[in-house]
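Newbie here. four chains, one complex. Structure please?
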Amino acid sequence: MRSPITWQSVQAEALRRLRAGLWTPGARIPDEAELARELGCARSTVNRALRELAAAGLLERRRKGGTRVPLTPVRKATFEIPIIRLDIEARGQCPGYRLIRQATEPLPKAEARAMRADPGAPFLHLLALHLADDRPFCAEDRWINPETPGLDGADFETLSANEWLVGNTLFSDGAIGFAATAATPELAALLDCAPDAPLLTITRSTRAGPRPITAVRLFYAPGHRLETRL
Amino acid sequence: MRSPITWQSVQAEALRRLRAGLWTPGARIPDEAELARELGCARSTVNRALRELAAAGLLERRRKGGTRVPLTPVRKATFEIPIIRLDIEARGQCPGYRLIRQATEPLPKAEARAMRADPGAPFLHLLALHLADDRPFCAEDRWINPETPGLDGADFETLSANEWLVGNTLFSDGAIGFAATAATPELAALLDCAPDAPLLTITRSTRAGPRPITAVRLFYAPGHRLETRL
DNA sequence: TAGTGGTCTAGACCACTCA
DNA sequence: GAGTGGTCTAGACCACTAT
């Protein structure tokens, strides 16, 4: 009895052929049935291996058209987006949190568009600072729908809104964006950096089905880098 | 004969239960066999549905431990990283390319570390500008291993190194990082922006097995945003 | 030790799409 | 119309790990 061929080994073999140039860009590769015969496994095993490569952008598959090596592969990079506190702890630093401001204010247009909410509607507006080893790590500028269930009982003095939302709302739909912005005077004071310093900025908006939940801008202290493997 | 249950519909039902709060954070959900019985499908169909949710960070699965809703879900965001020219075309703009400088120089430490190459080794150093509708889009500062096969025949006056590498080298291993940096005087002149303007900066390094290939910094013109759905 | 997810198989039918 | 990938099924065995 042979030990069974795993989909991982089929995938590794496919990668080997891609890297060795046996399967060249633009060319069609053998179909699933043929690879299954050649490698001595079931077609579904080949399917799983190649499906994942296609999802990663390393192959293109079409019914009847077969599987091809793309001429211009679209690489995909995946970032993990943990809770800020856990991110700081993962760096071996001691996380801190300070609420700077909290008020109910009319929702600005940009945030309204991102959440698909009504501009001018009264939203809870928070400004907070996350600290790593007592040094500024990231400023959080957040707008929260006051109709979010359970919001009344939340105390954002001690618990980051980031964490409260993760534990108390149900994800549905969202968008995220990366940009570079210049530090405003207030942000510069919070983050202890020069005014107009370049800040990596992450914008996130979240909805639960039809209901807008929250829009947030995270301004990371100068020098912050977000990294991942390809 | 009933129409078959698809893994997508099982996944949708699981998401519905998560959003409806039927499956709450920290709680264990029914095991695969039970869900399969309940939904009237094969266990492998349930497995595929839940496996993808676990990969997305919405569930945690462990053998014998069962499947749970994580207390602190780690969201994952995936960005597509196309060739710059295709990115510009996808925006409905006309792409342009200008080579600014090309020389062989000793590899700086930062790039050497990123590629795991020897600092000071002679590398090909390119500085180029990508244009969208004749306006500066992105500056490309690239270091290429001169021992990369086929490099002699490449003409970077007319063809972006970005594209040449995609078509002529085989991917193996790489890293990518995002940051915000201030425009140097030279970058400000190229990108037609103020000196010290905040620039979204993407750093990428690529290796093919044991061999370092290229390290590149892309400086996007002010205002550039990178977006994706969650 | 026993329960649960991870995976393989062999066969089947369907959906898309190319010629 | 026919070839290819997409998926479902039923059953099986294995690997991990909680108890």
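Moderator note: Residues 4, 31-33, 43-44, 47, 50-51, 61-67 of chain B lie near DNA strand C (CB under 10 Å from a C1'). The first helix of chain B runs from residue 7 to 20. Thread marked as resolved.
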